[in-house]
Amino acid sequence: MVSRDGEGGACHNGFGYVGGVEVMGDFGGHALPGAFFITMGLWWYIKIILLYTYKKQARICYLQSKAFFQRTENLEGIVFLGMVLTGVTCMQIFSESKESQLNKLLRFHHLTVYLFFGLWALINILCFNIRSIPVFLTKLMLANAFLVNAFIFYNHTHGRQMVDILVHQLLCLASFLAGLVAFLELLFTKSIVLELLRSSLTILQGSWLWQLGFVLFTPIGGPAWDLNDHNNSLFLIICFCWHYAVTYIIMGVVSVAVTWVVKWKVKNLCPSEFGLLKNAERDEESEEEM
Question: What does pTM read for this prediction?
Answer without folding.
Answer: 0.82
